[in-house]
Please model this.
Amino acid sequence: MTDRMRFGIFLAPFHKPGINPTLALEQDLELVQWLDRCDYDEVWFGEHHSAGSEISASPELMIATAAPRTRRIKLGTGVVSVSYHNPLWVAERMVQLDHLTRGRAMLGVGPGSLPTDAAMIGLTQADTRGLLADGLDIMTRLIRSDEPINFENDRWVLKDARLHLRPYSNFDIATAAVASPTGPKLAGRYGTGLISIGATTAAGFDALALHWDVVEAEAKHYGHTPDRSKWRLVGLCHIAETAEQARRDVEYGIEHWFHYFQEIAAFPQMSMPGANAREMIDFINDTGFGAIGTPEMCRAQIDRLWKQSNGGFGAYLLLGHNWANFEATKKSYELIAREVFPHFQGQHRSTMEAAIRAQKMRPDLAAVHSKAVETAQELYAAEKASRAAS
Model:
Protein backbone atom coordinates (compact mmCIF):
# COMPACT_ATOMS: atom_id res chain seq x y z
CA MET A 1 0.00 0.00 0.00
CA THR A 2 1.15 3.58 -0.63
CA ASP A 3 0.98 6.45 1.87
CA ARG A 4 -0.36 9.22 -0.35
CA MET A 5 -1.83 8.83 -3.80
CA ARG A 6 -0.43 11.33 -6.29
CA PHE A 7 -2.49 12.84 -9.08
CA GLY A 8 -1.45 14.05 -12.50
CA ILE A 9 -2.22 14.13 -16.20
CA PHE A 10 -0.98 12.15 -19.18
CA LEU A 11 -1.08 14.69 -22.01
CA ALA A 12 -0.64 13.19 -25.49
CA PRO A 13 -2.07 15.80 -26.36
CA PHE A 14 -5.24 15.30 -28.43
CA HIS A 15 -6.46 18.09 -30.70
CA LYS A 16 -8.87 18.08 -33.61
CA PRO A 17 -7.01 18.33 -36.96
CA GLY A 18 -7.48 21.66 -38.67
CA ILE A 19 -7.41 23.93 -35.61
CA ASN A 20 -4.57 26.39 -35.02
CA PRO A 21 -1.70 24.22 -33.68
CA THR A 22 0.13 27.18 -32.16
CA LEU A 23 -2.85 28.05 -30.01
CA ALA A 24 -3.49 24.40 -29.20
CA LEU A 25 0.03 23.87 -27.86
CA GLU A 26 -0.13 27.15 -25.93
CA GLN A 27 -3.41 26.01 -24.38
CA ASP A 28 -1.76 22.75 -23.30
CA LEU A 29 0.88 24.76 -21.49
CA GLU A 30 -1.79 26.96 -19.89
CA LEU A 31 -3.48 23.80 -18.67
CA VAL A 32 -0.25 22.66 -17.02
CA GLN A 33 -0.02 26.01 -15.23
CA TRP A 34 -3.61 25.52 -14.03
CA LEU A 35 -2.79 22.02 -12.77
CA ASP A 36 0.20 23.39 -10.90
CA ARG A 37 -2.05 25.95 -9.19
CA CYS A 38 -4.55 23.18 -8.37
CA ASP A 39 -1.77 21.18 -6.66
CA TYR A 40 -1.47 18.30 -9.11
CA ASP A 41 1.73 16.35 -8.65
CA GLU A 42 2.88 15.57 -12.19
CA VAL A 43 2.26 15.90 -15.92
CA TRP A 44 3.57 13.66 -18.70
CA PHE A 45 3.93 14.95 -22.29
CA GLY A 46 3.69 12.65 -25.30
CA GLU A 47 5.78 12.16 -28.43
CA HIS A 48 4.00 11.65 -31.76
CA HIS A 49 4.87 12.46 -35.35
CA SER A 50 1.84 11.56 -37.48
CA ALA A 51 -1.96 11.06 -37.63
CA GLY A 52 -2.86 14.70 -37.02
CA SER A 53 -4.27 14.71 -33.48
CA GLU A 54 -1.41 14.13 -31.03
CA ILE A 55 0.67 17.13 -32.01
CA SER A 56 3.58 17.14 -29.57
CA ALA A 57 6.69 15.86 -31.36
CA SER A 58 9.05 16.48 -28.43
CA PRO A 59 8.12 16.01 -24.77
CA GLU A 60 11.51 17.45 -23.85
CA LEU A 61 10.62 20.77 -25.50
CA MET A 62 7.27 20.82 -23.70
CA ILE A 63 9.04 20.23 -20.37
CA ALA A 64 11.60 22.96 -21.06
CA THR A 65 8.81 25.44 -21.89
CA ALA A 66 6.54 24.44 -19.01
CA ALA A 67 9.22 24.44 -16.31
CA PRO A 68 9.67 28.23 -15.90
CA ARG A 69 5.90 28.73 -16.03
CA THR A 70 5.22 26.39 -13.10
CA ARG A 71 6.21 26.17 -9.45
CA ARG A 72 6.24 22.61 -8.13
CA ILE A 73 4.54 20.17 -10.52
CA LYS A 74 6.85 17.47 -11.90
CA LEU A 75 7.23 17.22 -15.68
CA GLY A 76 7.74 13.92 -17.49
CA THR A 77 8.26 12.52 -20.96
CA GLY A 78 5.08 10.52 -21.50
CA VAL A 79 6.72 8.92 -23.30
CA VAL A 80 9.93 9.16 -25.32
CA SER A 81 9.65 6.59 -28.12
CA VAL A 82 13.06 5.11 -27.46
CA SER A 83 13.18 3.08 -30.68
CA TYR A 84 13.27 6.35 -32.66
CA HIS A 85 16.33 7.82 -30.90
CA ASN A 86 19.89 7.00 -30.00
CA PRO A 87 19.60 6.26 -26.25
CA LEU A 88 22.79 8.19 -25.48
CA TRP A 89 21.17 11.40 -26.69
CA VAL A 90 17.92 10.65 -24.86
CA ALA A 91 19.85 10.26 -21.61
CA GLU A 92 21.87 13.43 -22.31
CA ARG A 93 18.74 15.51 -22.91
CA MET A 94 17.07 14.10 -19.82
CA VAL A 95 19.99 14.87 -17.54
CA GLN A 96 20.14 18.42 -18.90
CA LEU A 97 16.42 18.83 -18.12
CA ASP A 98 17.06 17.40 -14.65
CA HIS A 99 19.46 20.28 -14.06
CA LEU A 100 17.32 22.97 -15.69
CA THR A 101 14.21 21.97 -13.69
CA ARG A 102 16.12 21.45 -10.41
CA GLY A 103 14.98 17.84 -10.22
CA ARG A 104 11.41 18.20 -11.50
CA ALA A 105 11.94 16.26 -14.75
CA MET A 106 10.95 12.60 -15.13
CA LEU A 107 11.84 10.11 -17.86
CA GLY A 108 9.05 7.95 -19.24
CA VAL A 109 9.90 5.55 -22.06
CA GLY A 110 8.01 3.34 -24.47
CA PRO A 111 8.46 1.63 -27.83
CA GLY A 112 6.37 4.10 -29.86
CA SER A 113 2.61 3.61 -30.16
CA LEU A 114 1.78 4.88 -33.65
CA PRO A 115 2.85 2.61 -36.54
CA THR A 116 2.63 5.63 -38.86
CA ASP A 117 5.46 7.24 -36.85
CA ALA A 118 7.72 4.23 -37.06
CA ALA A 119 7.06 3.63 -40.76
CA MET A 120 8.62 6.99 -41.69
CA ILE A 121 11.99 5.88 -40.30
CA GLY A 122 11.86 2.31 -41.57
CA LEU A 123 10.67 0.59 -38.39
CA THR A 124 7.81 -1.83 -37.80
CA GLN A 125 6.04 -2.63 -34.55
CA ALA A 126 7.96 -5.91 -34.56
CA ASP A 127 11.18 -3.87 -34.15
CA THR A 128 10.24 -1.31 -31.56
CA ARG A 129 9.95 -3.38 -28.38
CA GLY A 130 13.38 -4.95 -28.80
CA LEU A 131 14.87 -1.51 -29.38
CA LEU A 132 13.13 -0.22 -26.26
CA ALA A 133 14.72 -3.02 -24.22
CA ASP A 134 18.17 -2.26 -25.64
CA GLY A 135 17.69 1.48 -25.18
CA LEU A 136 16.48 1.30 -21.59
CA ASP A 137 19.40 -0.94 -20.65
CA ILE A 138 21.83 1.59 -22.11
CA MET A 139 20.12 4.60 -20.53
CA THR A 140 19.90 3.16 -17.02
CA ARG A 141 23.58 2.22 -17.15
CA LEU A 142 24.53 5.70 -18.37
CA ILE A 143 22.45 7.44 -15.71
CA ARG A 144 23.37 5.18 -12.80
CA SER A 145 27.07 4.66 -13.51
CA ASP A 146 30.18 6.40 -14.82
CA GLU A 147 31.35 3.29 -16.64
CA PRO A 148 31.79 3.69 -20.43
CA ILE A 149 29.39 1.73 -22.64
CA ASN A 150 30.15 -0.07 -25.85
CA PHE A 151 27.19 -1.40 -27.80
CA GLU A 152 26.09 -2.17 -31.34
CA ASN A 153 22.84 -3.34 -32.93
CA ASP A 154 21.17 -2.73 -36.29
CA ARG A 155 20.29 0.88 -35.35
CA TRP A 156 22.91 2.20 -32.94
CA VAL A 157 26.64 2.10 -32.33
CA LEU A 158 28.11 3.33 -29.03
CA LYS A 159 31.86 3.52 -28.41
CA ASP A 160 33.04 4.34 -24.88
CA ALA A 161 29.84 6.32 -24.39
CA ARG A 162 29.42 8.37 -21.20
CA LEU A 163 27.15 11.17 -20.09
CA HIS A 164 28.54 14.66 -20.43
CA LEU A 165 26.85 15.68 -17.13
CA ARG A 166 25.96 13.61 -14.11
CA PRO A 167 22.29 13.84 -13.00
CA TYR A 168 21.17 16.66 -10.73
CA SER A 169 18.78 14.32 -8.87
CA ASN A 170 17.71 10.72 -8.59
CA PHE A 171 14.90 11.39 -11.05
CA ASP A 172 12.03 9.03 -11.82
CA ILE A 173 12.32 6.60 -14.72
CA ALA A 174 9.17 4.77 -15.82
CA THR A 175 8.18 2.40 -18.61
CA ALA A 176 4.77 2.45 -20.29
CA ALA A 177 2.40 -0.52 -20.64
CA VAL A 178 -0.84 -1.06 -22.53
CA ALA A 179 -1.48 -4.69 -23.44
CA SER A 180 2.01 -6.10 -23.97
CA PRO A 181 4.03 -7.45 -20.99
CA THR A 182 7.12 -5.58 -22.28
CA GLY A 183 6.71 -2.53 -20.02
CA PRO A 184 6.11 -4.48 -16.79
CA LYS A 185 9.02 -6.82 -17.60
CA LEU A 186 11.41 -3.91 -18.07
CA ALA A 187 10.12 -2.13 -14.94
CA GLY A 188 10.77 -5.24 -12.89
CA ARG A 189 14.18 -5.87 -14.40
CA TYR A 190 15.55 -2.34 -14.01
CA GLY A 191 13.65 -1.23 -10.91
CA THR A 192 11.86 1.60 -12.72
CA GLY A 193 8.30 2.80 -12.34
CA LEU A 194 5.42 1.60 -14.50
CA ILE A 195 2.79 3.71 -16.31
CA SER A 196 -0.25 1.51 -17.03
CA ILE A 197 -1.91 3.29 -19.93
CA GLY A 198 -3.97 0.11 -20.21
CA ALA A 199 -6.04 1.32 -17.25
CA THR A 200 -8.11 3.19 -19.84
CA THR A 201 -9.18 0.03 -21.69
CA ALA A 202 -11.53 -2.77 -20.77
CA ALA A 203 -8.76 -5.32 -21.40
CA GLY A 204 -6.32 -3.22 -19.39
CA PHE A 205 -8.80 -2.86 -16.53
CA ASP A 206 -8.90 -6.65 -16.23
CA ALA A 207 -5.12 -6.86 -16.56
CA LEU A 208 -4.06 -4.37 -13.90
CA ALA A 209 -3.18 -6.97 -11.28
CA LEU A 210 -1.38 -8.96 -13.99
CA HIS A 211 0.75 -5.90 -14.82
CA TRP A 212 2.10 -5.85 -11.27
CA ASP A 213 2.43 -9.64 -11.14
CA VAL A 214 4.85 -9.36 -14.07
CA VAL A 215 6.76 -6.55 -12.36
CA GLU A 216 7.10 -8.58 -9.16
CA ALA A 217 8.17 -11.76 -10.95
CA GLU A 218 10.85 -9.95 -12.96
CA ALA A 219 12.01 -7.93 -9.95
CA LYS A 220 12.44 -11.10 -7.91
CA HIS A 221 14.42 -12.72 -10.73
CA TYR A 222 16.79 -9.73 -10.96
CA GLY A 223 17.05 -9.11 -7.21
CA HIS A 224 14.89 -5.98 -6.92
CA THR A 225 12.11 -5.10 -4.50
CA PRO A 226 9.36 -3.41 -6.54
CA ASP A 227 7.83 -0.21 -5.19
CA ARG A 228 4.09 0.25 -5.74
CA SER A 229 4.43 3.99 -5.20
CA LYS A 230 6.15 4.07 -8.62
CA TRP A 231 3.12 2.49 -10.33
CA ARG A 232 0.97 5.02 -12.19
CA LEU A 233 -2.45 4.26 -13.71
CA VAL A 234 -3.79 6.36 -16.57
CA GLY A 235 -7.58 6.76 -16.70
CA LEU A 236 -10.41 8.74 -18.26
CA CYS A 237 -12.64 11.21 -16.39
CA HIS A 238 -14.55 14.40 -17.08
CA ILE A 239 -16.29 15.91 -14.08
CA ALA A 240 -18.85 18.67 -13.61
CA GLU A 241 -21.14 19.73 -10.78
CA THR A 242 -23.90 17.50 -12.19
CA ALA A 243 -23.84 14.41 -14.36
CA GLU A 244 -26.07 16.15 -16.89
CA GLN A 245 -23.63 19.07 -17.18
CA ALA A 246 -20.69 16.69 -17.66
CA ARG A 247 -22.51 14.92 -20.49
CA ARG A 248 -23.24 18.25 -22.18
CA ASP A 249 -19.60 19.33 -21.74
CA VAL A 250 -18.12 16.35 -23.56
CA GLU A 251 -20.35 16.73 -26.58
CA TYR A 252 -17.75 19.32 -27.59
CA GLY A 253 -15.07 16.79 -28.55
CA ILE A 254 -15.79 13.18 -27.58
CA GLU A 255 -16.85 12.12 -31.08
CA HIS A 256 -13.55 13.30 -32.55
CA TRP A 257 -11.62 11.41 -29.86
CA PHE A 258 -13.51 8.17 -30.53
CA HIS A 259 -13.21 8.61 -34.30
CA TYR A 260 -9.45 9.00 -33.95
CA PHE A 261 -9.11 5.58 -32.33
CA GLN A 262 -11.85 3.95 -34.41
CA GLU A 263 -10.70 5.10 -37.84
CA ILE A 264 -7.26 6.75 -37.82
CA ALA A 265 -4.76 5.56 -35.20
CA ALA A 266 -3.59 1.99 -35.85
CA PHE A 267 -3.73 1.32 -32.14
CA PRO A 268 -6.31 -1.46 -31.70
CA GLN A 269 -6.06 -1.63 -27.91
CA MET A 270 -7.77 1.78 -27.74
CA SER A 271 -10.52 1.10 -30.30
CA MET A 272 -14.02 1.16 -28.84
CA PRO A 273 -17.64 1.24 -30.04
CA GLY A 274 -20.03 4.17 -30.28
CA ALA A 275 -21.73 5.91 -33.19
CA ASN A 276 -22.68 9.18 -31.49
CA ALA A 277 -21.91 11.19 -28.35
CA ARG A 278 -24.67 9.58 -26.28
CA GLU A 279 -23.50 6.03 -27.10
CA MET A 280 -19.88 6.99 -26.46
CA ILE A 281 -20.67 8.52 -23.07
CA ASP A 282 -22.71 5.48 -22.09
CA PHE A 283 -19.88 3.18 -23.15
CA ILE A 284 -17.35 5.08 -21.01
CA ASN A 285 -19.60 4.94 -17.93
CA ASP A 286 -21.26 1.55 -18.34
CA THR A 287 -18.09 -0.47 -19.00
CA GLY A 288 -15.91 1.02 -16.27
CA PHE A 289 -13.71 2.50 -18.99
CA GLY A 290 -13.88 5.86 -17.22
CA ALA A 291 -16.25 8.35 -15.59
CA ILE A 292 -18.19 11.19 -17.18
CA GLY A 293 -20.25 12.74 -14.43
CA THR A 294 -19.78 13.91 -10.86
CA PRO A 295 -16.87 13.90 -8.40
CA GLU A 296 -18.52 10.92 -6.68
CA MET A 297 -18.33 8.98 -9.96
CA CYS A 298 -14.65 9.83 -10.33
CA ARG A 299 -13.96 8.66 -6.77
CA ALA A 300 -15.80 5.40 -7.45
CA GLN A 301 -13.79 4.83 -10.64
CA ILE A 302 -10.45 5.29 -8.87
CA ASP A 303 -11.61 3.07 -6.01
CA ARG A 304 -12.50 0.31 -8.51
CA LEU A 305 -9.05 0.58 -10.05
CA TRP A 306 -7.44 0.48 -6.61
CA LYS A 307 -9.25 -2.75 -5.79
CA GLN A 308 -8.53 -4.21 -9.25
CA SER A 309 -4.81 -3.51 -8.79
CA ASN A 310 -4.78 -5.96 -5.88
CA GLY A 311 -2.65 -3.91 -3.54
CA GLY A 312 -2.78 -0.29 -4.64
CA PHE A 313 -0.71 2.09 -6.75
CA GLY A 314 1.12 5.36 -6.31
CA ALA A 315 -0.48 7.76 -8.78
CA TYR A 316 -3.61 8.24 -10.85
CA LEU A 317 -3.02 10.12 -14.09
CA LEU A 318 -5.96 11.60 -15.96
CA LEU A 319 -5.66 11.11 -19.70
CA GLY A 320 -5.86 14.52 -21.38
CA HIS A 321 -8.62 13.89 -23.92
CA ASN A 322 -9.90 17.34 -24.99
CA TRP A 323 -13.51 16.13 -24.74
CA ALA A 324 -14.72 19.49 -23.39
CA ASN A 325 -13.89 23.11 -24.16
CA PHE A 326 -11.03 24.67 -22.26
CA GLU A 327 -13.06 26.31 -19.51
CA ALA A 328 -15.04 23.14 -18.79
CA THR A 329 -11.81 21.13 -18.88
CA LYS A 330 -10.19 23.41 -16.30
CA LYS A 331 -13.31 23.19 -14.14
CA SER A 332 -13.19 19.40 -14.26
CA TYR A 333 -9.58 19.32 -13.07
CA GLU A 334 -10.38 21.84 -10.32
CA LEU A 335 -13.35 19.79 -9.07
CA ILE A 336 -11.21 16.65 -9.01
CA ALA A 337 -8.54 18.46 -7.01
CA ARG A 338 -11.13 19.89 -4.62
CA GLU A 339 -13.41 16.90 -4.10
CA VAL A 340 -11.51 13.77 -5.19
CA PHE A 341 -7.90 14.28 -4.04
CA PRO A 342 -8.77 14.50 -0.32
CA HIS A 343 -10.46 11.09 -0.31
CA PHE A 344 -7.27 9.39 -1.52
CA GLN A 345 -4.75 11.58 0.29
CA GLY A 346 -6.32 11.62 3.75
CA GLN A 347 -7.06 15.34 4.13
CA HIS A 348 -10.84 14.89 4.15
CA ARG A 349 -10.91 12.90 7.38
CA SER A 350 -9.64 15.54 9.80
CA THR A 351 -12.08 18.26 8.73
CA MET A 352 -15.04 15.85 8.55
CA GLU A 353 -14.21 14.40 11.96
CA ALA A 354 -13.80 17.89 13.41
CA ALA A 355 -17.25 18.83 12.09
CA ILE A 356 -18.78 15.67 13.63
CA ARG A 357 -17.15 16.36 17.01
CA ALA A 358 -18.37 19.95 16.97
CA GLN A 359 -21.90 18.83 16.03
CA LYS A 360 -22.03 16.40 18.97
CA MET A 361 -20.81 19.06 21.38
CA ARG A 362 -23.03 21.84 20.01
CA PRO A 363 -26.11 21.42 22.29
CA ASP A 364 -24.10 21.58 25.52
CA LEU A 365 -21.73 24.30 24.31
CA ALA A 366 -24.58 26.36 22.84
CA ALA A 367 -26.32 26.29 26.22
CA VAL A 368 -23.12 27.37 27.98
CA HIS A 369 -22.62 30.13 25.42
CA SER A 370 -26.19 31.38 25.81
CA LYS A 371 -25.83 31.39 29.60
CA ALA A 372 -22.57 33.36 29.32
CA VAL A 373 -24.26 35.99 27.13
CA GLU A 374 -27.20 36.17 29.52
CA THR A 375 -24.85 36.62 32.49
CA ALA A 376 -22.92 39.36 30.68
CA GLN A 377 -26.15 41.17 29.91
CA GLU A 378 -27.26 40.95 33.55
CA LEU A 379 -23.92 42.26 34.79
CA TYR A 380 -24.04 45.16 32.35
CA ALA A 381 -27.61 46.03 33.41
CA ALA A 382 -26.55 46.00 37.06
CA GLU A 383 -23.52 48.17 36.23
CA LYS A 384 -25.71 50.73 34.45
CA ALA A 385 -28.16 50.77 37.40
CA SER A 386 -25.33 51.33 39.86
CA ARG A 387 -23.99 54.25 37.83
CA ALA A 388 -27.45 55.81 37.61
CA ALA A 389 -27.93 55.51 41.34
CA SER A 390 -24.65 57.27 42.06
Observations:
- The two ends are 75 Å apart (CA to CA).
- The longest strand covers residues 231-239.
